[in-house]
Amino acid sequence: MTGCGVEEAGQAGAEPLFGGLTDSCSQVAEPALGAIRAYTGVLFSDAVGFEDESAGLSRPDMPVKVCTAEYQRSAPWSAGEPLQRTITLSFSLELGDDAVAATKRHFDRALDATTGSETTGLGDESFESWGAPDDTASSAFRKSNVFVSAAVFGSNMSEREGISGPRAGRAELEPGARAIAEALAADLGAVLTSN
Fold first, then answer.
1. What 3-state DSSP class applies to 102?
2. Residue-level pLDDT at 161
3. Confidence at 132, pLDDT banded by 50, 70, 90
4. How far apart are CA 12 and CA 22, in angstroms?
5. Do 58 and 26 touch, CB atoms closer than 8 A?
6. Is CB count within 10 Å lower at the N or C end of the chain?
């Protein structure tokens, strides 16, 4: 017996909070659209949809949803302004035995595989990372038995029109990744079903 639910959500033996994950990328992105719109600014377009990149990633005991959208513009050209931003939203839900502990291990492996550092304020535990792959900023968190990540990559306009410029810097990308992750954390019920 687990003590009638008195354990904290992050401890082994705790009952998982979530029992299902949406199959729709538009539903995955919905809670974060305000943050995505604010972050992408003039690049934002309602015509851009999140594409499902989850094929082959899910297992019966671990549904996974990975959704990516690319926002870009070519005019008016102004050196140094945002040219393109790619946003990837990922959800991994553990449903097997001891799902909360399994998600904790997933979180630990993901943190160890990055140049990230632990942060506070999102879920039960969170981290932010920068650099790999390709100067990508990501903000990730674990809440009970779900691991969520928001990753942002981008480039800016160069001095020569029509030529892709430098990759966007950390200071440009990290705030977007964090704001998007915060929006997802604030409305997990839009993407996940409760146990």
1. helix
2. 86
3. low
4. 25
5. no
6. N
**pLDDT band at residue 86, thresholds of 50, 70 and 90?**
very high
Helix, strand and coil percent figures for the chain, each rounded to 5: 25, 35, 40
Residues 6+ apart with CB under 8 A from 178: 128, 139, 150
Q: Give the 3-state secondary structure of residue 149.
A: strand
- Cβ proximity of 117 and 140 under 8 Å: no
Query: What sign has the CA pseudo-torsion 20, 179, 12, 189?
Result: negative
Sequence-separated (6 or more) residues with CB below 8 Å from residue 182: 35, 121, 122, 139
pLDDT of residue 165: 82
| C-alpha atoms less than 13 angstroms from C-alpha of 26 in its C-beta half-sphere | 4
pLDDT at res. 91: 98
Structure tokens at 55: 């094929």
